[in-house]
Specification:
The protein is built from 14 helices and 19 strands. The chain has helices spanning 35-44, 52-57, 84-87, 90-93, 105-118, 187-193, 217-229, 247-259, 269-280, 296-309, 328-333, 357-371, 389-399, 411-423; strands spanning 2-8, 17-22, 25-29, 74-78, 101-103, 126-128, 134-136, 142-147, 156-162, 165-170, 198-204, 238-242, 263-267, 290-293, 314-318, 346-350, 376-378, 403-407, 440-442. The protein has 2 domains: 2-213 and 385-442, Ribonuclease Z/Hydroxyacylglutathione hydrolase-like (Metallo-beta-lactamase, Chain A); 217-378, 3-Layer(aba) Sandwich (Rossmann fold), CATH 3.40.50. It starts with a strand and ends with a strand. A hairpin with an 8-residue loop joins β8 and β9. It binds zinc ion.
Length: 443
């Protein structure tokens, strides 16, 4: 019997956390932040040291009191990838568990940076495990990472092997046949797992209601190429903003920036952090050909050079694509960092607006301010890192799990995964199970 508890991320998008119990051992999958709540909490006051109670009560971190009786049984915390809605609560919650954090090398590098940023005591061991390796966590539990494509390097489908079957955790993923960086999804491994006692598949259902296959990152790369290389940028500043953890996208941006014969400057703390994490494990190299400025004081000199040498000699890559009030792009729009935008400069958003009220408001306000300068805005130069309905179908048919649990959203989205599962012959409440935060199921 395998017992699965939905701790977070089953009633909302964010704060992903799941507990899987077999006999006397428990594995925690993910420990993420609810980003919007967390950011609002940080914005409301300047105090960075919120108590765990505050964070839990506001819903910024998962409420792990629902597994209070399991805490001593936890043998490992296993995040699937380095996005903050999957690892961001680890610095706050992991200390309550006497267990190591086991993850892929890039996830480990990002987590170390995130932990260092928080300046709170952290004693859990962080163990990096490569793809293709297995790790025995107890007499009856072994874990394995299968490479899958997403919008951050080293994303894993986590497989928990037990004598009663496997738990396969695909949260988040897309099935990209032509990724621009990193390996393709390891279909060979997934085929090997298929049908051989896959007890349950827990999967990312964010776009289960979107009936298509999510386009490849190479499509996003072509879109970028179009706006960067096939537009007239002579005499114009070009500023581009994307997800700081999207190393594949950043590599494309740098490649096209070099073709534009521009010097490239990365600006912003989070950009510097994710890039440093990638460089620390030899995953990608940006410096020294890219100048990286984490802090405001480091930006002054390069921006003076931009003004002096000519605005069309540089490509500025910066944080702030969601219009975050303290990010570089917002400060640039407010003329607060010593560089003034001009008419017909290009501002490229290589992202979509993450659909929350705060983001929509922030981004609209940012664009309004940018347009006052008369800049040209390029929006949505992006493809998602999340699977859509056709990808879900492909993964389900490939793995043929006995049970399905939709994750990474509340009912408004998971209902679409349930209908897909029903189309594929699964039975509601018998073999496809809608979970809510706090709910436990025995399989
Ligand atoms: Zn993700």
């Amino acid at each position: 019997m395998i017992e699965i508890t939905a701790v977070g991320g089953y009633s909302e998008v964010g704060k992903n956390m799941t507990a899987v119990k077999y006999k006397d051992d428990v594995v925690i999958l993910d420990m993420g932040l609810h980003m919007e709540t967390y950011i609002n909490l940080e914005d409301d006051d300047d105090d960075d040291s919120h108590s765990l109670r505050d964070l839990t009560n506001t819903g910024a971190v998962p409420d792990d009191s629902v597994i209070e009786n399991l805490k001593k049984k936890v043998v490992a915390i296993v995040p699937s990838h380095g996005h903050l809605d999957h690892i961001g609560a680890i610095p706050f919650l992991a200390q309550n568990y006497n267990a190591p954090v086991i993850c892929t090398p890039y996830t480990a590098a990002v987590l170390r940076a995130v932990v260092a940023d928080k300046k709170i005591p952290f004693s859990n061991e962080i163990v990096a495990m490569e793809f293709g390796r297995k790790m025995k966590l107890s007499d009856s539990i072994t874990i394995e990472f299968v490479n899958v494509t997403h919008s951050i390097p080293h994303t894993a489908i986590v497989v928990i092997h037990t004598p009663d079957g496997k738990v396969v955790y695909a949260n988040d993923f897309k099935l990209d046949e032509t990724p621009t960086f990193g390996e393709k999804t390891d279909y060979k491994k997934l085929k090997e797992l298929s049908g051989r006692n896959v007890k349950v598949l827990i999967l990312d259902s964010l776009y289960a209601g979107t009936d298509r296959k999510t386009p490849s990152e190479s499509v996003a790369r072509d879109m970028l190429k179009e706006v960067m290389l096939n537009t007239d940028t002579k005499g114009k500043a070009v500023i581009i903003s994307t997800f700081s953890s999207h190393i594949a996208r950043l590599k494309s941006i740098v490649e096209f920036g070099k073709k534009m014969k521009r010097k490239i400057i990365f600006m912003g703390r989070s950009l510097a952090k994710y890039v440093a994490a990638a460089e620390s494990i030899g995953l990608a190299k940006f410096s020294p050909s890219v100048e990286i400025c984490a802090y405001k004081k480091q930006m002054k000199k390069p921006l003076m050079k931009v003004e002096k040498d000519g605005r069309d000699k540089y490509l500025i890559v910066c944080t702030g694509h969601q219009g975050e009030p303290t990010a570089v792009l917002t400060r640039l729009a407010d003329d607060k960092i010593g560089f003034s935008l001009q008419r017909n400069d290009h501002v490229i958003f290589s992202c979509t607006v993450i659909p929350t009220e705060t983001n929509r408001k922030n981004r609209a306000s940012l664009e309004k301010r940018l347009l006052r300068y008369g800049v040209i805005i390029f929006r949505d130069v992006h493809e998602s890192g999340h699977a859509s309905r056709q990808d879900h179908k492909e993964l389900i048919e490939l793995l043929q799990p006995e049970h399905i649990i939709p994750a990474h959203a509340g009912h408004d989205k998971t209902k679409h995964m349930i209908s897909l599962a029903e189309e594929l012959g699964y039975k509601r409440n018998k073999t496809v199970h809608e979970m809510k935060d706090g709910k436990t199921i025995m399989l």
